[in-house]
From TrEMBL:
Domain CHAD as annotated: residue spans: 210-482
Name recorded for this polypeptide: CHAD domain-containing protein
Cited Pfam families: CHAD, CYTH
Gene3D superfamilies attached to this UniProt entry: CHAD domain, Hypothetical Protein Pfu-838710-001
Highest taxon in the source lineage: Bacteria
Natural source organism: Sphingomonas natans
CYTH domain segment(s): 2-196
Database matches in CDD domains: CYTH-like_Pase_CHAD
Length: 484
C-alpha cells in the first residue's frame, strides 16, 4: 500500500495551452498515451464502498490500480493505493488488494463500466526545495454511446513540502485560470451513466471515531470545498437557483467549521480566510435574495423588474467568481488547511490532538446551549434577535451533520434523526421569517416610492411563522441529544 499527495486543478483547454507554452515548463514533456478501463459491479458496489478499480495501459504495459478515496476530497488527495502489473484487461482480485474483502461474493460480477483515454504531457518541476510531477491530461471518458471531454492538471509531490504544491499552483494561475479540481476520472466516468444533476448537496463528512480534532477539521474543509466547487462549476450558463443556493450553503458550512473548531484554528491567517469566505458569500447573496423574491411574486411588471435585477445579479456573481481573488481564496484555504501555521502552533497542540468525539461533544453542547438561551423568547423577540437565533441554529445543524459519522451507535443514530429533524423545522421557519424581513428592503430598491415593499411585509404570514418557529424551538429543546 502506497500513499500519494496530489493537487488536482480544473482548467479550460485554452488555459492548458497557455500554461503548456509558458516559461514555467522547461523542455519537452514526456508524452504518454493512456487507456484505462474502470470496473465495478452492476450495482456500483465498489463506488459505494469508496473504491475505484482500473487497468491502465501505457504502450504494452498494463497496471491495475485500486484506490480508496478515504477523506481525500476538494483536490487534495491522501489516498490508499494498491498497484500491481497485469497481463491483460482482466482484473486481479486477490489478497493483494481489499476488493474481495469489501464486496464479498459480488466480486464475481465485477465488469468493465467505462473507459478513459488520455494524452498525458508530463514534466518534473522544481518548486522551492520540492520536486513535483506536473501533468496536463487531455482526453475523454467513454461509456457506451456517451462521452465527456477531460482537460485537467495534476501536481503530485514527489519530494518536499505540501505547501510547494500550492506555490506552483499560484504560479500556474498567474498564467491562466486554474481552480481546485474535485472530480476523479472515475467519478467523471460514473457521471456518464448517472442522472444529470444541476446542483449538488453536501456529502457526509468522511470522519471516523479514531481521528484527532485536527484531522477531522481538515476532512470537513476538504468536503466543503468540494461541495462549493461542484456547484460553482455547474452554475453557469443555466443559472439554476438551487445551484447558487448550494454554493452559498457550502460557504456557510466552511465558515461554521471555523467556529466549531475555534479552539484549534486561531490566528491571523484563519481570520483572514474567514473574512474572504464571508465576502464571497455576500457576493452571492443579492442573487439569492432575488431568487427567493421571484419565487414568491406573481406575473406582472414587478416580477419582470425582479427578473431583470436577478439577471444583473447573476452577471455580477459570474464576474466575481472569475476574478483571481476568488480563485485564490480556495487555493489559500486548501494550502492553510494542509500546511498552515495552525498545525505547528505548540499552544494549540493539546486541542489539535484531542479525540474528535470529545471535541464534537463539547461543540454540540456549546451550540445547543446558545440556541436554547437565545431562542426562548421567539414570540416577542425582534427580527434581529430571531436572525441571530437562525444563525446559531445553522451552526448547530452543520455541527450535527459534520459529526454524524462518529455517533453511529444504535441509540445515537435514532436520536440524531429526531434531533436534526427538529432542527431543520426550526431553521425552515426562521428562514421564512428572514426572507420576510429581507424582502421589503430589496423591493424598495427596485420600486422606490411604490407599494411593493409594504405588500411584501405580510404581517399575517409573519405571525404564523413566528408561532411555528416557537413550536419548532420547543420540539428541539425537548429532543434528546444524540451525543450524550
Amino acid at each position: 500500500m502506497a500513499s500519494e499527495i496530489e493537487l488536482k486543478l480544473d482548467v479550460s483547454r485554452e488555459a492548458a495551452l497557455a500554461i503548456e507554452g509558458s516559461p514555467l515548463l522547461v523542455g519537452e514533456p514526456q508524452v504518454i498515451d493512456q487507456r484505462a478501463i474502470y470496473f465495478d459491479t452492476p450495482e456500483n458496489g465498489l463506488r459505494k464502498a469508496g473504491l475505484s478499480l482500473r487497468i491502465r495501459r501505457s504502450g504494452e504495459q498494463r497496471v491495475q490500480t485500486v484506490k480508496a478515496a478515504g477523506g481525500g476530497t476538494a483536490g487534495l488527495f491522501a489516498r490508499g493505493e494498491w498497484e500491481c502489473p497485469v497481463d491483460g484487461d482482466q482484473p486481479r482480485l486477490d489478497e493483494t488488494n481489499p476488493i474481495r474483502a469489501i464486496v464479498g461474493d459480488a466480486v464475481e460480477r465485477i465488469e468493465p463500466r467505462f473507459e478513459v483515454r488520455i494524452e498525458r504531457h508530463l514534466w518534473m518541476v522544481q518548486e522551492g526545495a520540492s520536486t513535483i510531477e506536473l501533468v496536463i491530461d487531455r482526453g475523454e471518458t467513454i461509456a457506451a454511446d456517451r462521452n465527456s471531454p477531460i482537460t485537467e492538471i495534476e501536481l503530485e509531490l514527489k519530494e518536499g513540502a505540501a505547501a510547494d504544491l500550492f506555490a506552483l499552483a499560484r504560479r500556474l494561475d498567474a498564467r491562466a485560470p486554474v481552480r481546485p479540481g474535485v472530480l476523479t476520472k472515475s467519478e467523471r466516468g460514473y457521471r456518464l451513466s448517472d442522472e444529470v444533476r444541476s446542483s449538488f448537496k453536501a456529502e457526509p463528512a468522511a470522519l471516523d471515531d479514531g481521528m484527532t480534532s485536527a484531522e477531522a477539521f481538515q476532512r470537513i474543509v476538504y468536503g466543503c470545498v468540494r461541495h462549493f466547487r461542484l456547484n460553482e462549476a455547474a452554475l453557469f450558463p443555466d443559472r439554476n437557483p438551487d445551484t447558487l443556493h448550494q454554493a452559498r450553503v457550502a460557504l456557510r458550512r466552511l465558515r461554521s467549521a471555523f467556529s466549531i473548531f475555534a479552539s484549534i484554528v486561531r490566528g491571523a491567517e484563519a481570520e483572514r480566510l474567514r473574512g474572504q469566505l464571508r465576502g464571497l458569500a455576500a457576493d452571492l447573496g443579492d442573487a439569492r435574495n432575488l431568487d427567493v423574491l421571484l419565487d414568491h411574486t406573481e406575473a406582472g411588471s414587478l416580477r419582470d423588474r425582479i427578473f431583470s435585477a436577478r439577471e444583473d445579479a447573476y452577471d455580477r456573481v459570474e464576474a466575481v467568481l472569475a476574478t483571481p481573488s476568488a480563485r485564490a481564496t480556495m487555493l489559500d484555504l486548501l494550502e492553510w488547511t494542509a500546511a498552515g501555521e495552525w498545525l505547528r502552533n505548540e499552544a494549540l497542540e493539546t486541542d489539535r490532538c484531542r479525540p474528535i468525539r470529545a471535541h464534537a461533544e463539547g461543540a454540540l453542547n456549546r451550540f445547543r446551549k446558545k440556541v436554547k438561551k437565545d431562542g426562548r423568547d421567539l414570540l416577542t423577540a425582534d427580527d434581529e434577535t430571531r436572525h441571530e437565533v437562525r444563525k446559531d441554529a445553522k451552526k448547530l445543524r452543520y455541527a450535527s451533520e459534520f459529526f454524524k459519522p462518529i455517533f453511529q451507535r444504535k441509540r445515537e443514530k435514532r436520536r440524531s434523526k429526531k434531533f436534526v429533524a427538529a432542527l431543520e423545522e426550526l431553521q425552515e421557519q426562521l428562514g421564512g421569517l428572514n426572507d420576510l424581513a429581507t424582502a421589503p428592503e430589496v423591493l424598495r430598491l427596485l420600486d422606490p416610492g411604490g407599494h411593493a415593499a409594504a405588500i411584501a411585509s405580510d404581517p399575517e404570514r409573519k405571525a404564523r411563522l413566528i408561532e411555528a418557529a416557537d413550536e419548532a424551538y420547543d420540539d428541539l429543546i425537548d429532543a434528546k441529544c444524540f451525543w450524550r
